[in-house]
Amino acid sequence: MTDPPGRLHAAIAELALFNDDPAAGGITREVYTPTYAGALERVQTWMRDAGLELRVDAIGNLFGRWAGTEPGAPVVLTGSHVDTTLNAGAYDGVLGVLGAIEAVHLLRDRGFTPRRSIELVAWAGEEPRFGTGCVGSRAAAGELSRADLDRLVDRNGISMAAALAAAGLNPDRLAAARIDAPTVHALVELHIEQGIVLETHGEPIGVVTAIAAPHDFRLTFTGAATHAGATPMGLRRDALVGAAEAIVAIERIARASSSGTTVGTVGVVHARPGAINVVPGTVELDVDVRDSDAAAREAVVAAIVDAARKIADARDMEVAVHEIVEDVPVACDPAVVAAASEACAELGLTPRLMTSGAYHDAMIMGRRLPVGMIFVPSRGGVSHHPDEYTAPEELDRGVAVLAGTLARLAG
Amino acid sequence: MTDPPGRLHAAIAELALFNDDPAAGGITREVYTPTYAGALERVQTWMRDAGLELRVDAIGNLFGRWAGTEPGAPVVLTGSHVDTTLNAGAYDGVLGVLGAIEAVHLLRDRGFTPRRSIELVAWAGEEPRFGTGCVGSRAAAGELSRADLDRLVDRNGISMAAALAAAGLNPDRLAAARIDAPTVHALVELHIEQGIVLETHGEPIGVVTAIAAPHDFRLTFTGAATHAGATPMGLRRDALVGAAEAIVAIERIARASSSGTTVGTVGVVHARPGAINVVPGTVELDVDVRDSDAAAREAVVAAIVDAARKIADARDMEVAVHEIVEDVPVACDPAVVAAASEACAELGLTPRLMTSGAYHDAMIMGRRLPVGMIFVPSRGGVSHHPDEYTAPEELDRGVAVLAGTLARLAG
Questions:
Q1: Handedness of CA A238, A244, A250, A255 (dihedral sign)
Q2: Domain ranges in chain A?
Q3: Consecutive H or E run containing A290
Q4: Which of A201, A219, A258, B123 is deepest in the core (most CB within 10 A)?
């Protein structure tokens, strides 16, 4: 479908070579590193080949502009990110940037001329090198302060401000990265699903109607760390058994959510002291609850906290709740959803209208701008992992739908 | 009770100064280190002060002999260990060595003359620096081979053989450390309980009738590591929820054990990949099941494995069982139990007849020799921790009971 065939696939493979840890088997390309800079430079050459005018803003977001016939009209933004987590896959984010370049080629080849300018973007730092993700889009949304740049540090203690300076960017110019909402008509992001909904239902393409946002918190159960051999069952205050009851309850409560779309996950558990012959005295559970329906999500969070307290009471233990992050879900813009759905129909595809459970730069911008997303299947739902995979024809289908969507939004 | 008052307590405090990590707040004195050697040298001076003849065997076990009037008669052994875990307390093991020296003083002051020789022992390496604990008593029991000394390594990769050589011991003389069963009349070990049974029941002293042994194994649940946001509840194979059900089942199964004394503990849990936004794909649980009743213990282990398999089946997951260690419980010798009980009665104390849930050098030797143990309370059951504590009068009471027990066994 792309022309010449394979250009997109070759570009994805070439970008994967910008990798700080090839021995691990996956791709490690964290934002603001020399390796990231090299990858971004390569993306710039591809954007130039597609006839785009380039600029990089103060936070490192890269823009490539295809000027429309009405230069003053609000633009259509499309893009994603080319940074990765540690030992990640080749498609997360990258598809949304390189796929957008391919969509521009496709539209040019068709002789399409945009009325509104189309701006491609590679957002800086979608992955949470500095603890918080989506720093590029947060800066564009005006949600990042100069103080945040000093406060946010990576696992080596390097502040965002220091990393920006090392990358040749000026942290004091942060405010210049802000995008004024009236200058943007719509934003659309092409992305791999990172889930197994499309695969499970055998569907080729998804159009996102809402982006779920997480409410993350830590539950810390405190019982008594006693000798596993010397403490009879009746004299224990085993924090891990209490935490285990909570893990089972979290699944039950999330399944029973009124929206039917809430998910609740315990992804991190730490039992201390963590010796085979000691009853755990303290257990931390990091809980992630997400939904596009904020009210349903908060009802689930409240029920989980209530269940945890009852479990702790019944076991003569304490439980503390520590907030980690609470983000606001975003509804996609009906006009963007319609444009993407029409683009699918034009290609003979029936899209699955679905919620994005993962969060994206589009969610950050969606608080201020009309946004939408297009999903292609992810094999096995695997993401942030070397095994992340989407077949070439599925990538091409996503690009074709993106091109059709851009044509409708900018035409 | 001791004379001069406080000598034992001063010695315990002084030995605590032999410490490789005082900044951590507790005591770190691993076997075969220079710090351990210094502590053992100080113990030797105290043994000499008590009129004992010293010898150190090939594995580093220290013996102090009070010759009896019948030098050829089987001896009475008593002792414990002066090595510690990392950041441990001052009493575990130490009481059984320094308390035995104090018991000798007590008996000498009373004008007691032993018929059988009394041999004090500080076993080398009760704590598992090299993964396996009780290496000194295992060598004495003939359960450690020369090949084991090369195979067993500490967390820094130092083999036991290398550690022995560095400590001036000859690993090739290992066989000389073996104690022939007919040369020993009985072994008695004074120890802190490391549990809260005495404290909970308000009892001052325990006489151990059996030493429970652990059957340790690892359960590894494998589901699918998928995106926490992008995977609906109905499409998950969450290894942690399955493992949590198993943790709850382990408590239930252990409580229902036919012996009434089985304990089952999950002390270690690892959920992978261990990110807040990823459903755990693999979870390892390290399970410890103990009882002095081997049949009851094995029935509990079988029921746990069965429950884990049913949980995994119901969740379309795999579970693997990996054996860690399976030790044999030991019944204490009725004559030693009787001698200790009489010693208590003589002091106006009613001992609690109890099982040792923790395992000790006495358990290793108990497979070959008549053994017994005397327990004093542990505040809060805390052990292997800087907060480990037994009150001075409780220590003295334990020493008095040990002295009375030795008098009966050696008299």
A1: negative
A2: 7-212+329-410, 214-326
A3: strand A282-291
A4: B123
Mark yes or no for CB contact A265/B193 under 8 Å: no
> A290 vs B228: CB contact, 8 Å cut-off?
yes
Q: Which residue has the tokens 């904020």?
A: A294
Instruction: Give, in degrees to the nearest 5, the angle at Cα A188 between A187 and A191.
Output: 140
Q: Which CATH class is domain B214-326?
A: alpha beta
Residue pair A338/A332 in contact by the 8 Å Cβ criterion? no
3-state secondary structure of A163: helix
Q: What is d(CA B148, CA A109) in angstroms, rounded to the nearest whole number?
A: 73
Q: Which of B212, B224, B241 sits opposite A251 (nearest CB)?
A: B241
Q: By CA distance, what is B290's nearest residue in A?
A: A229
Q: Which single residue is written with the structure tokens 């983000």?
A: A327
CA B110 to chain CA mean position, Å: 32
A interface test, pick of B248, B276, B359 with most A CB neighbours within 10 Å? B276
A62-66 and A118-123 beta bridge pairing? antiparallel
Residue type, A169: L
Total length of chain B = 411
C-beta separation of A200 from A84 below 8 A: no
- Provide, as residue numbers in chain A, all residues whose Cβ is less than 8 Å from the Cβ of B212: 229
Find, among A387, A359, A392, A363, the residue nearest to A376 by Cα: A392
A243-274 per-residue burial string, b: 16 or more CB within 10 A, e: under 16: bbbbbbbbbebbbebebebbbbbbbbbbbbbb
A25-61 pLDDT tens trace: 999 999 999 999 999 999 999 999 999 999 999 999 9
Q: Which residues of A touch B286 (CB under 8 A)?
A: 276
Tell me which chain A residues have a C-beta less than 8 angstroms from the C-beta of B268: 271, 274-276
Joined tokens for residue A84:
């990765």
User: Is the domain defined by B7-212+329-410 classed in CATH 3.40.630.10?
Assistant: yes
- pLDDT mean values, one per 10 residues, chain B (411 residues): 70 97 95 98 98 98 98 96 94 98 98 98 95 94 96 94 97 97 97 94 97 95 92 95 98 97 96 90 97 96 98 98 92 97 98 92 94 96 92 97 98 91
What is the number of residues in chain A? Answer: 411
Per-residue pLDDT tens over the stretch A59-117: 999 999 999 999 899 999 999 999 999 899 999 999 999 999 999 999 999 999 999 99
Interface mutation vs chain B, best among A86, A203, A233, A285, most B CBs within 10 Å: A233
The ipTM is 0.84
Contact residues for B313 (Cβ-Cβ < 8 A; gap 6+): none
Give the residue among B214, B212, B216 at the shortest CA–CA distance from B356.
Answer: B212
The H-assigned helical ranges of B217-293 are: 239-255
Q: Which residue of A has its CA nearest to B360?
A: A229
Å from A356 to nearest chain B CA?
Answer: 6
Distance CA(B407)–CA(B411), nearest Å, equals: 5
Q: Mean pLDDT score of chain B, rounded to an integer? A: 95
**Helix, strand or coil, per DSSP, at residue A195:** coil
Cβ of B241 and A225 within 8 Å? Answer: no
3-state secondary structure of B249: helix
pTM of the model: 0.84
Q: Write out pLDDT tens, residues A160-210.
A: 999 999 999 999 999 999 999 999 999 999 999 999 999 999 999 999 999
Distance, CA of A90 to CA of A390 (rounded, Å): 9
User: Which of A214, A228, A382 is closest, CB to CB, to B263?
Assistant: A228
Closest CA to B351 of B291, B398, B393, B410: B398
* Contact between B76 and B409 (Cβ < 8 Å): yes
Residues of B in contact with A242 (CB under 8 A): none
Comparing alpha-carbon positions, the chain B residue that sits nearest to A248 is B241
| Residues 6+ away with beta carbon under 8 Å from A111 | none
